[in-house]
Amino acid sequence: MPTGHLYITRDLGPEPMRILRNSGRELVVHPHRDLPPTRHDLLNGVSGAAGIITLLTEVMNAELFDRAGPQLQVVSAVSVGTDNVDIEAARSRGITVTNTPDVLTDATADLAMGLLLALNRRIVEADAFLRRGESWSWGPRVFLGRDLAGEVLGVVGYGRIGEAVAKRARAFGMRVIAAGSAPTASGGVERMPLSQLLATADVISLHAPLTAQTRHLIDAEGIATMKPGAVIINTARGQLIDEDALVQALKAKRIRGAGLDVFENEPLIHPGLLELDNVVLTPHIGSAGEQTRTGMALLAVKNALAVLDGRPPVTPVNG
Ligand code: DGY
User: What is the pTM (predicted TM-score) of this model?
Assistant: First the structure.
């Protein structure tokens, strides 16, 4: 392995990789585009690195920082969430951590609305029905779902993405309520404690970061307070929900449905979820718009090169 190199845990696409190649830095790129490095390959890859550009699938902890060595200056995450990075361990070693906020706000909010539309209007179920070749005719009760207009959306974690979902929901005629800290709060959104939000909302959409405090924020007790017709959408982090409790509630039809882009033990999917019609599942694709992913990679590259060149990064997490 070289030393002082920049280790990149996946090919980031043509434009970001071109900028990296032109930077004059020595690059080591994990060769598989869609599969993460094994822990063994990762630890070998970062050994001696001055910088790491990482995806959310790689755990960046004290063990890894020590393996990299004292010359490691920056861990640049290609994600807004940095729950895969031990920020404290980085801080204590003088390593700058950066992330990619803003560029993925719209794409993630779009997917949250997509999951909501799919659930409320039963789009995935209806598609499967037609593909099975079932006989059908237009009928007043065929695949009846729920209108969006008039429903109450409860946003849990009213940051940039929560606000973008609220904006979209209002355009669909929904009333928006919110719980959680509100750094970017705008008018027209009623605030309330989480317990009240869970008991009030028809649709609950999660946008909180994963921390020790938010793990299982939605647990069996919280689910029990939801309205029987409620649906829950999660495009944030799977561990915000106690998945066992959710599966039980969905099986018992205690709540109406769930739209999940993220999972508690990602990439494993709770087997109970796979058996249910009242869930729509997507493989953590909230930010998977072509322009968005390029934007994320470009920002991550900019952040990494800035730190290595002795300049302040654009979006530091622990700066
Ligand atoms: C993030 O950036 O944290 C998202 O989960 C990636 O889509």
Answer: 0.96
